[in-house]
Design a protein that fits this description.
Layout (H helix, E strand, L loop, with lengths): L2 E11 L3 H12 L2 E2 L9 E5 L7 E6 L5 E8 L2 H10 L3 E5 L4 E4 L5 E6 L13 E10 L4 H12 L2 E4 L5 E5 L7 E6 L7 E8 L2 H10 L3 E5 L3 E5 L5 E5 L22
Parallel strand pairs: 1-4, 5-8, 9-12, 13-16
Antiparallel strand pairs: 1-5, 2-3, 3-4, 6-7, 7-8, 9-13, 10-11, 11-12, 14-15, 15-16
């Protein structure tokens, strides 16, 4: 089983999907595909001269968040492997499946359609990471699940509460596993690698985002649809910390 590509999903309330679309196309330099799904709830962010790796979903329950789609040539095999590692099958749609990790995070196994070219850096940033926020009581087992399922290289982050799962070269997203400081439900959010956080922050604020909090090397933002995401101080070309290349762990992310 090989994961050939990934999609980072921003899940936002359906009533505010238009706001999310306007914002995320602007910050990623993309345009929208046609809307899909029974309620027109799915849409892809289409870059110029590259393959897509970001999508939006309008959800009807809750405030949304984020999730990752894992693309493969054999969805059945990937689904079976996920279940062997402890995932639960939520919905089987035939050629794709929705699953839930042991800590409760949703993700999808979907067909690979030949995507190979990562979207470029846009205005000093790149959407390149899905951060999984995991309660301390589930952190070890959840980290083992994702490492076992993906087979990606496991690296220490820049702080003890972070672990990085780095995919093979060419895949568009890596996973950051963040150990929370309290036992609350697991969640996920998107991270952008930024060459200059203040400059990217200013651009995002002009597009309607607001600062939620600030950390040592990251800024937590809230987009116009109400969803949280992070601007992280990492090289947007390599994903690594500035000056140390991709082999080291991620910069801190909220």
């Amino acid at each position: 089983m090989t994961i050939r590509w990934t999609y980072a999903f921003a899940d936002r309330p359906a009533a505010r999907l238009a706001d999310a679309c306007a914002f995320w196309t602007a910050v990623t330099g993309t345009r929208l595909s046609a809307f899909r799904g029974d309620r027109g709830e799915f849409v892809t962010l289409l870059p110029e001269g590259a393959d897509p790796s970001g999508k939006l979903q309008g959800v009807t329950d809750g405030a949304g968040g984020a999730h990752i789609d894992l693309c493969t040539e054999d969805v059945r095999e990937l689904t079976g492997r996920a279940r062997q590692h402890g995932a639960a099958l939520v919905a089987d749609h035939g050629d794709w499946a929705v699953l839930r990790s042991p800590a409760g995070l949703l993700f999808c196994a979907v067909p690979w359609h030949g995507e190979t070219v990562r979207p470029p850096v846009v205005s000093g940033s790149r959407l390149d990471q899905v951060c999984l926020d995991i309660p301390p009581s589930r952190y070890d087992s959840e980290s083992a699940f994702w490492a076992g399922l993906t087979g990606w290289e496991r690296l220490p982050g820049s702080r003890p509460e972070f672990t990085v799962l780095r995919p093979p070269a060419g895949l568009p997203h890596r996973l950051l596993l963040q150990r929370l400081d309290e036992d609350r439900p697991a969640s996920a959010h998107l991270d952008l690698a930024c060459a200059d956080i203040p400059a990217v922050r200013a651009r995002h604020e002009k597009l309607g985002a607001v600062v939620a909090s600030e950390g040592a090397h990251w800024t937590v933002m809230r987009d116009p649809a109400g969803g949280l995401y992070c601007l992280t101080g990492r090289d947007p070309e390599t994903g690594g910390l500035p000056g140390v290349g991709p082999a080291r762990g991620a910069a801190d992310a909220g």
